[in-house]
Structure formats: C-alpha cells, structure tokens
Amino acid sequence: MKYRYLDLRRPRMFSNLDLRHRVLQAVRRHLDDLGFIEVETPILTKSTPEGARDFLVPSRLQPGEFYALPQSPQLFKQLLMISGFERYYQIARAFRDEDLRADRQPEHTQIDLEMSFIEEEDILLTVEGMFAHAFKEALEVDLATPFPRITYTDAMARYGSDKPDLRFGMEIVDVTDIASGVDFRVLAEAVRQGGVVRGIKGDGAAVLSRKDIDDLASEAAAFGAQGVVPVWVDEHGVRSPMQKFLTEDQLAALLTGFGAGPGDLLLLVAGSRPVVEASLGALRLALASRLGMPKEG
Questions:
Q1: 120-139 helix and 11-33 helix, angle to the nearest 10 degrees
Q2: In this structure, what are the phi and psi dihedrals at residue 273, rounded to the nearest 5 degrees?
Q3: Is the preceding peptide bond at 146 cis, omega within 30 degrees of 0?
Q4: pLDDT tens profile 213-265
Q5: How far is C-alpha 9 from the geometric centre of its chain's CA atoms?
Q6: pLDDT digits (tens, 9 = 90+) for 73-102
Q7: 3-state SS, one letter per residue, for 186-205
Q8: Could you give the domains of the chain?
Q9: C-alpha closest to that of 287 among 212, 197, 210
Q10: 271: which residues sit within 8 A by CB, 6+ positions away?
C-alpha cells in the first residue's frame, strides 16, 4: 500500500479501473431497462453460510457478540422477493474466509440477480443479454446470442470440467468398447468393475518424453487416477506399455477413434467415470499448457 498511488498511475492500471467502470455502467443501464431495481443489502449482519468460513467483526455495543460479513446477499434478496420486489440486482461485495485460488479471493464483487415467477430460459436470456450489452458498450465487441449451451453431463464427458476452456479442442474420447477386448490388466480390470476408459489426443505431442508424461500424470493423480497409459504415434506405428496387447484391428480402431496420426500422443485413463472425467480434465489443461495451446481471448 505504501506505493500503491504510484502503481495506479500506470496506464494499464488506469485502463483496468476505467474498463470496470464502463462495464458496471453498461450492466446497470441494461438491467434498469429490463425493470430491475438496484438494492443495497446490509454488510454487518448475522452469519449466512455459503460453503466458506465467515469473516467476523466484534460488536463494540454488545461485547462478546460479533457481526458476520456476508458471503452473499442470499437471505436479503429472498426477503425482497417475498416482499413483492420481482426483479432485484446488486453490485454486491462478498467476503469469504477461504484458501486463495485463481478464482477465489477473500473479498470480491459479484453481479447479484434475483427474479420471481420465471423459467430457466428467462434467466439464461437475461444474463446472456446483460453480457452482450456490456461487451458492446464497454469493448465494442458483438457477442452472438443465445450463447452455445452444453449440459453438465456433456461438459464433463467431453472436457472433464463444468467450466471448460474452449479456446482449444482436445476433447475426451471414450474407448471403453475397444479397451474391453484388450488383454491389458490396467484397462481390462477397470472395465470389468464397471468403469470406463477414456483419453485425450495431443496433436504433435509425441515429442514429449516419459519424464514429461510422469509429470503430467501427477496432475491426474490429484483427482484419483491410478495411472496414465501413454501411446506415442509415429510413422512406424505406436510405442506404448500396452502395445504388445493390441491386435492390428484394435490398434486401428484406437487410432481412428482419436483421429490420431504420426507425431500425436494419446493419454488414456481407466477407472470410475467421475475419477476418469476429472483426471482427464486436469490432464487436458496441463497438456495444452505444455504445448502452448491456450491463447489469450
């Protein structure tokens, strides 16, 4: 904080704050046009648990008692709904005492909405319209609406995440049917126990070494994967721990399923569906990062 005033003089910092201002102004104008009412809800209140620990503030007037900073305005906006305020919004501050992560901070600002007597499609169209308006007003970027939609089941099956990075492909491929006929214990045992065998393809990733694969496997291990089976594809065929267990037809089906060619790398994970999906979701991001695939935007 000592030199923050100097930091804020930098063009980039000023631009960030100016962009934030323009986005919030655009959001307010759009929601006002839709008939929403902006209401500020209390900051010093009772505990409203939202999955994290509360920040507590001692009460001077009532020694031994504490206020809790809100993790969200949930209770107050519900009060507004039953009081007859059918459309409410707030640029709300929220406070959550939890470990820091890339998408988690002790305090943050959220655009909080609540509507009465609506269907699922209503909230989707409202939020999509709000984003489209904000991007147009603040950045002069046109967003096509409605946004592409995907179910949670499909997102986990295709990307291993309910918030997939769509800046690159590398979709998960299910090869359980092929693996069920392969006499490779790691895969066969998983299928026998009702599990699945799925994998991802890294275009041009066959240059990665076994040490690289081990490093990537540690990402999957954090989500319960018992191991990662690599398949290096080159002009002479494949190299893999499961290579000698594959018939020519099985190998052809595997490569066709992934659309793999020389220079590509396949990474397979076997186990229960939730473990495989989460593990491949982490692998997908780690491999893409190593290959320099995610681009800004």
A1: 140
A2: -55, -50
A3: yes
A4: 999 999 999 999 999 999 999 988 899 999 899 999 999 999 999 999 999 99
A5: 33
A6: 999 999 999 999 999 999 999 999 988 877
A7: HHHHHHHCCCEEEEEEECCH
A8: 4-139 (3.30.930.10), 152-290 (3.30.1360.30)
A9: 212
A10: 190, 195, 196, 224, 225, 226, 279
CA-CA distance, 269 to 174, in Å (whole number)? 10
Q: Which two tokens stand for residue 227?
A: 């191991």
CB of 231 within 8 A of CB of 254?
yes
Strands 37-38 and 87-95: parallel
DSSP string of 51-116, one letter each residue:
SSBPPEEE-SSSTT-EEE--S-SHHHHHHHHHTT--EEEEEEEEE-B---BTTB-SEEEEEEEEES
Amino acid at site 197 = V
Q: Is 216 exposed, middle or buried (0-12, 13-18, 19+ CB in 10 A)?
A: buried
Which amino acid, one-letter code, is at 43?
Answer: I
pLDDT 10s digits, 157-192: 999 999 999 999 999 999 999 999 998 988 989 999
CA distance to 61, 120, 121, 134, 138, per residue, from 125 (Å): 46, 9, 6, 14, 20
**Rounded-to-integer distance, Cα 109 and Cα 123, Å:** 20
DSSP state of 44: S
- Helix, strand or coil for residue 143? coil
**Whole-angstrom Cα distance, residue 130 to residue 132?**
6
Q: How far apart are CA 284 and CA 229, in angstroms?
A: 14
Residue 48 CA: distances (Å) to CA of 68, 69, 140, 175 = 8, 9, 39, 45
pTM equals 0.78
- DSSP symbol at 167: T
Record the tokens describing residue 78, joined without a space. Answer: 């519900």
